[in-house]
TrEMBL record:
Keyword Ribonucleoprotein listed: no
Protein name in the entry: Nitrate ABC transporter, ATP-binding protein,putative
Species per Swiss-Prot/TrEMBL record: Hoyosella subflava (strain DSM 45089 / JCM 17490 / NBRC 109087 / DQS3-9A1)
Pfam families on file: ABC_tran
Entry-linked InterPro entries: AAA+_ATPase, ABC_transporter-like_ATP-bd, ABC_transporter-like_CS, ABC_transporter_ATP-bind, P-loop_NTPase
UniProt keywords, alphabetically: ATP-binding, Nucleotide-binding, Transport
Domain (ABC transporter) ranges: 19-246
Lineage: Bacteria, Bacillati, Actinomycetota, Actinomycetes, Mycobacteriales
The keyword Acetylation is assigned to this record: no
Domain of life: Bacteria
One term of GO molecular function: ATP hydrolysis activity
Amino acid sequence: MTEAQHLRDRGDADSPAELDLDGVSKAYGDTLAVRDITAYVPAGKVSVIVGPSGCGKSTLLRIISGLDSPSDGSVSFNGVVVDGVPDGLAMVFQDYSRSLFPWMRVDSNIAFPLKRVPREERAARVQEAIDAVGLNGKEKLYPWQMSGGMQQRVAIARALACHPKLLLMDEPYASVDAQTRAELEDLLLKIQAEKNITVLVVTHDIDESVYLADHIIVLSKPPSVVAETIEVDLARPRDHVVTKTDPRFVEIRGHVTRMLRGASVSA
Ligand SMILES: Nc1ncnc2c1ncn2[C@@H]1O[C@H](COP(=O)(O)OP(=O)(O)OP(=O)(O)O)[C@@H](O)[C@H]1O
């Protein structure tokens, strides 16, 4: 068996990551933000977390990314308990204006996390990421010379250049207009299918959750638990008109809406 095959069999090479959340709780002083969250994020799929405001979605992403630690329970990344930022994880935040460096051009912003990668490979990865998000010709612009949607493409390209096995996205499209949001949703689905990455998205937008997801993790009111995990059995590739008029889409959207509005998401 070659080294590459060995690594791949262990899930260490190009294969997407899986995540296991086992009884995760997080308290901030006297405030219990999440309690006993047990959930599975399968490899090579799009999982989406939805829940009422303040239910601890961002807290969970911080714990998964190793930026914060749980008060109880654990998160495993490919079977290894997370106790720091795992290799193979990249994150995209809502606020691109704070995550991109305004004094760096697009190509330098994308190359920034690749400092330890040899120069030729770094250039190839930057080009590959630019191609993936359709930023060709914009390499030498500064972020402030671009629209919000284009800036978020830069942030996504920077994450992709790291060749992530898991892409975490915290409300990634909450700051762009509806048309751009739809384009970026399709871009994410295209990239996820082409590159076979595990994607975990937090969103407030119920339409977006159903449109993107293979499965949706619905959190309850705080202190939060998993109220339900919903398998989204809609065909891929998805399309904003065809998918959103599918009776199954309407049914799942209605179910998630009722869960978020109703008593069924009470803890
Ligand atoms: N660093 C912190 N210190 C103290 N309390 C915190 C901290 N971070 C989050 N919290 C509290 O934990 C709870 C969950 O917050 P969190 O931001 O994770 O929820 P959320 O679901 O992402 O919220 P929203 O939907 O409004 O974005 C809230 O009560 C919040 O005030």
